[in-house]
C-alpha cells in the first residue's frame, strides 16, 4: 500500500509491503528512494512529532 | 472476490508460494489467529520511501483509496510502568472509504528486538471518548492510502 502523508512537511510517500513470503518483491512501477523500515524518524509516530514542532 | 476486499484492514492473501498444502494451512491458521488476537508467526513487513510523486498505477493493478486520520494518544500510566515494553505509542485511527468509516485503536511497542502491534476495531463513541486523551506532543496525521495487490 502507498501512504501519502499529505499534511507533513515534504509530503512523503511511503510504500508499505506486507507478506508471509521469505522474499519481498517490489512493484517495478514505483520508484523507490530507500528502505526506511528501521529508520525511526520515518515512523508515523515520529512524523506526528515533526508535524507538531513545525 | 479479491477486488471486493481490497482495502479492508483485515485483508490477507494466502497464496500458493508455499512448499505444500500443510504449509499453506499453517499460514491460513496464522492469519486467522492474528485477527482474533492470538500470537502468530512473524509476517515480513517493510517500508520504503518513494522517490518523487507517484503517477497513475498500471491499468491492470486494481486499487482502493481511503483517507486515514491517525491521532496519537497519551500512553496510559500502567503501560508506561511495564518495563518489558519500550517505545510505546498508542493511537486511534479513522478510516474513511466511499462514505463508510471504521475506527481502530492501536498500540505499538518493542519487547527486546521484537516489534509488537496490537489493533482492535472500536465504535465511533469509543473513538470520540478516546480523543479526549489525545497526545500533547504529537499532531494528528492525515494519510491518503492506496491499497493494491502486487504479485509477480
Question: Which two protein chains have the largest interface (Cβ within 8 Å of the partner's Cβ), and how many residues from each?
Answer: A-B, 40 and 44 residues
- Described by its quaternary structure, the protein is heterodimer
The counted number of beta strands of chain B is: 6
Uncertain runs of chain A are: none
Strand arrangement, largest sheet of chain A?
Answer: 1-2
Name the structural class of chain A: alpha+beta
The geometry of chain B reads as globular
* Helix and strand run of chain A: EEEH
Give a quick precis of the structure.
The complex is a heterodimer of chains A (54) and B (152). Chain A has 54 residues and is an alpha+beta fold.
Secondary structure layout:
The complex is a heterodimer of chains A (about 55) and B (about 150).
Chain A: E1 2-5, E2 13-19, E3 32-35, H1 44-53
Antiparallel strand pairs in A: 1-2
Chain B: H1 2-5, H2 21-35, E1 44-50, E2 63-73, H3 77-81, E3 86-97, E4 100-111, E5 114-122, H4 124-131, E6 141-148
Antiparallel strand pairs in B: 2-3, 2-6, 3-4, 4-5
Describe the structure.
The complex is a heterodimer of chains A (54) and B (152). Chain A is α+β, with helices and mostly antiparallel strands. In chain A, 19% of the residues lie in helices and 28% in strands. Chain A has one domain (2-18, 25-53). Chain A has one helix and three strands; from the N terminus they run βββα. Chain A is elongated. Chain A starts with a strand and ends with a helix. The model of chain A has no long low-confidence stretch (mean pLDDT 89). By secondary structure, chain B is of the alpha+beta class.
Amino acid at each position: 500500500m502507498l501512504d501519502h502523508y499529505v499534511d507533513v512537511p515534504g509530503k512523503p510517500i511511503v510504500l508499505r509491503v506486507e507478506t508471509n513470503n521469505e522474499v519481498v518483491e517490489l512493484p517495478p512501477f514505483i520508484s523507490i528512494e530507500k528502505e526506511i523500515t528501521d529508520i525511526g524518524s520515518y515512523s508515523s509516530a515520529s512524523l506526528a512529532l515533526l508535524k507538531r514542532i513545525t | 472476490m479479491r477486488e471486493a476486499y481490497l482495502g479492508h484492514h483485515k485483508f490477507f492473501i494466502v497464496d500458493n508460494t508455499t512448499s505444500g498444502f500443510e504449509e499453506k494451512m499453517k499460514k491460513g491458521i496464522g492469519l486467522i489467529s492474528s485477527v482474533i488476537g492470538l500470537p502468530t508467526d512473524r509476517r515480513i513487513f517493510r517500508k520504503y520511501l518513494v522517490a518523487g510523486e507517484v503517477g497513475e498505477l498500471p491499468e491492470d493493478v486494481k486499487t482502493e483509496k481511503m483517507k486515514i486520520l491517525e491521532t496519537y494518544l497519551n500512553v496510559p500510566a500502567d503501560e508506561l510502568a511495564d518495563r518489558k515494553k519500550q517505545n510505546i505509542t498508542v493511537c486511534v485511527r479513522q478510516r474513511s472509504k466511499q462514505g463508510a468509516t471504521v475506527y481502530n485503536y492501536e498500540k505499538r511497542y518493542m519487547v527486546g528486538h521484537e516489534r509488537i502491534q496490537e489493533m482492535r476495531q472500536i465504535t465511533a463513541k469509543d473513538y470520540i471518548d478516546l480523543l479526549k486523551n489525545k497526545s500533547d506532543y504529537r499532531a494528528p496525521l492525515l494519510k491518503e492510502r492506496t491499497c493494491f495487490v502486487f504479485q509477480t
